[in-house]
């Protein structure tokens, strides 16, 4: 959050051809399915240190022609963001955003305890599992769940939904420790209902130690481990705010892993 505590929601309309050209110039595979990495690279090239921390494809905006609308949360006022982009953005990145169709709104200054909202969130529900050599790796929360019962006769999708709902409740309701910063946080909301809207296993692109783009998970290791990708799921339902200040921090922080690449942005509608 910014010093003022103000959170903004931006709607950036992106030209697909401009995004593809930028991705090519950054060495991104032309046919990669990871548009989240492409948009992450665009925001970094356009806004630098002011790049929004969270983003997701606008679920209600198909765009017109060759455009893709993106929603994002950040703490920089719109005019300051534009000024920074004009001064420092890479030309290709600046021209990939259709500024005349993009906009911004301030999010509420405070959140009332007891207020209910419809939510939607795209998440990567994973857990870390230790290897025999002491290192750890990310695995699908569904595969890592101790609650999986071989005798459970429910369809796999319903069992997966139950595991992901429990995972989301931990993220939103429970006390968690951010492994990257070693800080503890609590979400400030209660999940009333949760449905699994969509699910797929996907491969992401990330930089390795040498700054080369590599697929995650590694196809060779994934084949040996019987996993074809990381979970990419959209969950929706109703939540109730239990602590306004903690909930504000949850919105700004996001939910789960891979938040800088199109996951974890909670979208809200009045319940």
Q: Ends: how far apart?
A: 25 Å
Largest sheet: 4 strands, antiparallel
Shape, per Cα inertia axes? globular
> SS-based structural class?
alpha+beta
Q: What percent of the residues sit in helical stretches (DSSP H or I)?
A: 25-40%
3D architecture notes:
It contains 8 helices and 14 strands. It is of the alpha+beta class. The chain has 2 domains: 99 residues, no CATH class; 155 residues, no CATH class. The chain has a 4-stranded antiparallel sheet with strand order 2-3-1-4. The chain has a 4-stranded antiparallel sheet with strand order 10-13-5-14, covered by helices on one side. A two-stranded antiparallel sheet has the order 6-7. A hairpin with a 4-residue loop joins strand 8 and strand 9. Helix 1 crosses helix 2. It is globular.
A few lines on this structure:
The protein is an alpha+beta fold and 271 residues long.
Task: Output the keywords.
271 residues; alpha+beta; 2 domains; four-stranded antiparallel sheet; 14 strands
List the helices and strands and how they pair.
Elements: E1 8-15, H1 16-25, H2 35-47, E2 54-57, E3 67-74, H3 78-88, H4 91-95, E4 103-106, E5 116-123, E6 126-130, E7 136-140, H5 141-144, H6 156-173, E8 175-178, E9 183-186, E10 189-202, E11 204-207, E12 213-216, H7 219-225, E13 230-241, H8 244-253, E14 267-270
Helix pairs in contact: 1-2
């Amino acid at each position: 959050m910014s010093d003022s505590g103000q959170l903004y929601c931006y709607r950036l309309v992106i030209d697909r051809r401009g995004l593809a050209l930028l991705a090519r110039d950054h060495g991104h595979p032309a046919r990669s399915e990871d548009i989240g990495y492409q948009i992450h690279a665009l925001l970094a090239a356009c806004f630098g240190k002011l790049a929004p921390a969270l983003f997701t494809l606008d679920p209600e905006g198909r765009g017109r022609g060759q455009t893709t609308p993106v929603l994002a949360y950040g703490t920089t006022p719109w005019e300051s963001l534009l000024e920074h982009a004009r001064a420092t953005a890479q030309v290709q990145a600046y021209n990939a955003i259709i500024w005349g169709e993009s906009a911004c709104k301030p999010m509420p200054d405070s959140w009332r305890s007891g207020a209910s909202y419809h939510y939607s969130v795209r998440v990567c529900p994973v857990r870390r599992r230790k290897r025999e050599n002491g290192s750890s790796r990310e695995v699908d929360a569904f595969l890592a769940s101790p609650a999986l019962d071989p005798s459970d006769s429910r369809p796999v999708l319903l069992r997966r939904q139950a595991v992901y709902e429990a995972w989301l409740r931990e993220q939103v309701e429970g006390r968690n420790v951010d492994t990257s910063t070693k800080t503890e946080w609590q979400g400030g909301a209660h999940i009333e209902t949760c449905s699994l809207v969509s699910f797929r296993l996907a491969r992401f692109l990330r930089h390795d130690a040498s700054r080369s783009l590599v697929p995650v998970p590694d196809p060779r290791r994934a084949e040996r481990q019987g996993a074809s990708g990381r979970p990419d799921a959209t969950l929706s339902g109703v939540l109730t705010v239990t602590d306004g200040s903690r909930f504000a921090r949850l919105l700004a922080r996001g939910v789960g892993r891979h938040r800088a690449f199109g996951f974890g942005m909670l979208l809200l509608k009045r319940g």
